[in-house]
Amino acid sequence: MLPLKPIYFAHYAAFGAHAPYINLYLDRIGLSHQEIGILSGLLSAITVAAPRVRGPLSDRLSSRRPLLVISMVGAIVVYSGMWGASSF
């Protein structure tokens, strides 16, 4: 498996590249401003809550890599489903 530094770099680079445009994309596919706000708030809430769950869990498992892989696969699944969505 790859060392963690390049994985974290790729993860945050991808997030930083799409973050400014995600709300514009959601507006373009026809979501209301309220729905866009809910999704943006949900993203922020998950960003705050996930480390508080993932940290103790990785300490208990004594390994960060499996959780990192699961998190990345989960993000890919969620964003892939978003590409095909046309409504809230």
Describe the fold and architecture.
The protein has helices at 4-28, 33-61, 65-84. 84% of the residues lie in helices and 0% in strands. The chain has a domain at 52-81. The longest helix has 29 residues, at 33-61. With 88 residues, the protein is mainly alpha-helical.
Give a brief description.
This protein is mainly α and 88 residues long. It contains three helices and no strands. Helices cover 84% and strands 0% of the residues.
Keywords:
single chain, 88 residues, mainly alpha, 3 helices, 0% strand
SSE layout and pairing:
Elements: H1 4-28, H2 33-61, H3 65-84
The mean pLDDT is 84
Query: How many β-strands, per DSSP?
Result: 0
| Rg from Cα | 15 Å
Give the end-to-end Cα distance, rounded to a whole number of Å. 37 Å
Major sheet characteristics: none
What is the number of helical segments per DSSP (H or I, 4+ residues)?
3
Please trace the helix and strand order, writing H or E for each element.
HHH
Helix content: over 70%
Show unreliable segments. Answer: none
Report the sheet-strand fraction: under 5%
- Apparent shape: elongated
Structural classification: mainly alpha
